[in-house]
Amino acid sequence: MPRLNVVNPESATGRAKEIFDGPLKGKHFNIFKGMANSPATLDMYLAMSGALSKASLSAKEQEVIQLATGQANDCGYCQAAHTAIGKSAGLTEEQTIGARSGSMPGDDRLNALAKFATALHEKRGFVSNEDLGAFRGAGFDDGAIAEAVAVYALATFTNYFNHVNESEVDFPQAPAI
Q1: Coil, strand or helix: which one is 14?
Q2: C-alpha span between 177 and 54 (Å, rounded)
Q3: Is 16 helix (H, G, I), strand (E, B) or coil?
Q4: Which of 12, 18, 85, 160 is the least buried, fewest Cβ under 10 Å from its Cβ?
Q5: What is the CATH number of the domain that holds 136?
């Protein structure tokens, strides 16, 4: 049961209603119903997500980071949500499991993303020159490094929000690993 008020999109008012009727129309997920207690929080989430939609990292690549981070932070909500979103972005179920495990054999770029996201988490951002070299060796440039950190930050925000809220999962459960 969520620990924050659940804002019903149909009865929301003010800025929360504008967001539910606008950018979140048809996306009335439980995480957003909790965030709607603070329209500024929803705006921040949407601004970050919107900025990252213009990143050089593809949606599929960003989902690898989301999945690795959700697993590392033990966020069942994000594991479920990003398994579904990752599949719609082109990941197979096996790849979603691999991303959550931090290793994706058979695809050097996705494997490098999973490993880099795991290193970001485990080292609290203090990645080594070797970590950066391995990431660059898979074809990523400094812009992609900056974007990977940004995706990781967004993932950590949503993970921690769900921990605080105890958001009820409204996606199919992610497979066990």
Answers
A1: helix
A2: 31
A3: helix
A4: 160
A5: 1.20.1290.10
Q: Tell me which residue range forms the domain holding 66.
A: 59-165
User: Looking at the structure, do residues 48 and 63 belong to the same domain, yes or no?
Assistant: no
Residue 171, classed as helix, strand or coil, is: coil
- Distance (Å, whole) CA 154 – CA 156: 5
List helix spans (H) across 36-171: 39-52, 59-72, 76-88, 93-101, 108-122, 129-137, 142-165
Q: How many domains does the chain have?
A: 2
Phi-psi region of 106 (alpha: psi -120 to 50; beta: other; left: phi over 0): left
- Read off the pTM: 0.96
Residues 73/156, Cβ–Cβ less than 8 Å: yes
Residue with tokens 């925000």: 157
Closest CA to 32 of 161, 177, 176: 161
For residue 13, give both structure tokens: 């008012």
Q: What is the pLDDT along the chain (177 residues), one digit of tens a residue?
A: 999 999 999 999 999 999 999 999 999 999 999 999 999 999 999 999 999 999 999 999 999 999 999 999 999 999 999 999 999 999 999 999 999 999 998 999 999 999 999 999 999 999 999 999 999 999 999 999 999 999 999 999 999 999 999 999 999 999 999
